Amino acid sequence: MALWEKTVAMALVVVVVLVCCFIAKTEAFPSSSQLDKISRLPGQPQVGFQQYSGYVTVDDKKKRSLFYYFAEAEIDPHTKPLVLWLNGGPGCSSLGVGAFSENGPFRPSGEVLVRNEYSWNREANMLYLETPIGVGFSYSADSSSYETLGNPVLEFATDFNSRAEFIWSHGLISDSTYRMFTSSCNYSRFVSEYYRGSVSPICSKVMNQVGKETSRFVDKYDVTLDVCISSVFAQSKVISPKQVAETIDVVLDYELLDLEIPTITIVGKLIKAGIPVLVYSGDQDSVIPLTGSRTLVHGLAKQLSLNTTVPYRVWFEGQQVGGWTQVYGNILSFATIRGASHEAPFSQPERSLVLFKSFLQGRPLPEAF
């Protein structure tokens, strides 16, 4: 997945990402209010680290508040970095998807929680923030705040148009449909028309054919997986009940919206400020294909005059190839996670943890086993 998100579908932004994005700091985290301390989540196993959740008011006048969930590092939290996790989409919950489906300390199992042995709080203090206002448990008491969320007519050409080649190369569409999908109406044009509320006949024809050939029985977030009931349904059983909501101190009435402006320019500014950035992609994701992300990272490196410091190569998790990576100027890194879906820590948790740990330690991904 890319560090910036360019899709209205669920996507991860890690600032370091992410993607999100993730930003890691080596300083100790500030102490949290005891009022926000979670004694124990319903159905949670016994753990040795502290958890906190609550609201941060960002606009008193409009009564806008962001919800956060914080999980201390399992060992020596005061010496471990602080990582901010922001799920993308926009409109995707950092709590429900990020913490409880991807890299948080727990995974839902029926109506209880079980430990995630590849949780990222093994290596860092994890802070999950529901953003922007209107996503998940974050809210505004002033309804006008929701009207300015995002631009419904966005042009994400590189990422969106890479989808055609990805699904064609994986055998999901025919040669003739691929030609239509790249010449008659590409995906970025369809998205732009869709959010203007007027889809042209040719785009309707192309997208209907693409949908017919790919079928609804293929998971677009991981084209290799058999279709099954997503764990999202399982985690909704854990997060949604009133008992749990009251435990983590949330407002129960909220509205989910989506669409924000892409943040590729912000990524460039982070790099110019000396902040290392990692952009990673699950290589089985057709929603934000690795080819689009890789092209954008290469373009950003060229724009910033960053030379290649680690040529494109494989990296290892144990004795298996974990993916491929390339590093520019020792500050901008790209990596794929082999066999991973759109939510890489969910589908390939061990490989994702290797990638995360290497980045935090400022080391290249393992070159040998």
From TrEMBL:
One of its GO terms (molecular function) is serine-type carboxypeptidase activity. Keywords: Carboxypeptidase, Glycoprotein, Hydrolase, Protease, Signal. The keyword Lipid metabolism does not apply. InterPro entries: AB_hydrolase_fold, Peptidase_S10, Ser_caboxypep_his_AS. One of its GO terms (cellular component) is vacuole. Residues 1-28 form the signal peptide. SUPFAM superfamilies: alpha/beta-Hydrolases (SSF53474). GO terms for biological process: proteolysis. It comes from the Eukaryota. The keyword Transcription regulation does not apply. Belongs to the peptidase S10 family. This is Serine carboxypeptidase-like 45. It comes from Cannabis sativa.
